[in-house]
Every structure is written in structure tokens, then in C-alpha cells.
Specification:
about 90 residues; elongated; alpha+beta; 2 strands
Length: about 90
């Protein structure tokens, strides 16, 4: 039985929480489920600093996409494509 199987319909598990000293699924409504923060590595931070210095809008978009769960290389590709199309 997975974490999401333990939640009611319309809810999904976002990690676990302590209840009565036990770890239980943290079930939240699907519409409000937030992705856990992903810690940036030092290498990623350095790359984003360079990118932000060259074009702050691209760097900001990459950070936003990464917070939404996109891998860094995919986020960079999306942000650069958006800049090329004039959307940033």
C-alpha cells in the first residue's frame, strides 16, 4: 500500500507527519498539494548566479520552474526557449 493509497479520494500524500508518535501520510487536497522544496546544490547555485547575472529574467524563470519540480536542465531549456520567443 503506497502513501497515496492511504488518502481519501481527491487527496494526495505529501510526505508524512507525526500523529500519536507514529509516522502517517500527510494527506492534503490535490488542488493545494505543494511539492517539497528541493535543495539546490552549490554547483546549481553557481550556475544560476551566472545565468541571473547575464539575464535576471531567465534566472528567475529557471528557479520558478525548478520549484515546480522540473529538473534544472529542462528548466534552463524552457526558460531559454521562452526568451528566444520573446516571452521573457
Amino acid at each position: 500500500m503506497g502513501l497515496d493509497d492511504a488518502c481519501w479520494e481527491g487527496y494526495e500524500a505529501v510526505g508524512t507527519k507525526k500523529k500519536d508518535g507514529k509516522d502517517v501520510p500527510n494527506c492534503v487536497p490535490k488542488a493545494t498539494a505543494a511539492k517539497p522544496e528541493v535543495e539546490e546544490t552549490e554547483e546549481q547555485k553557481a550556475g544560476l548566479k551566472i545565468m541571473s547575472a547575464a539575464d535576471p529574467k531567465v534566472g528567475d524563470k529557471v528557479r520558478t520552474l525548478m520549484k515546480e519540480g522540473k529538473p534544472q536542465d529542462q528548466a534552463v531549456a524552457i526558460a531559454l526557449d521562452m526568451k528566444r520567443r520573446g516571452e521573457l
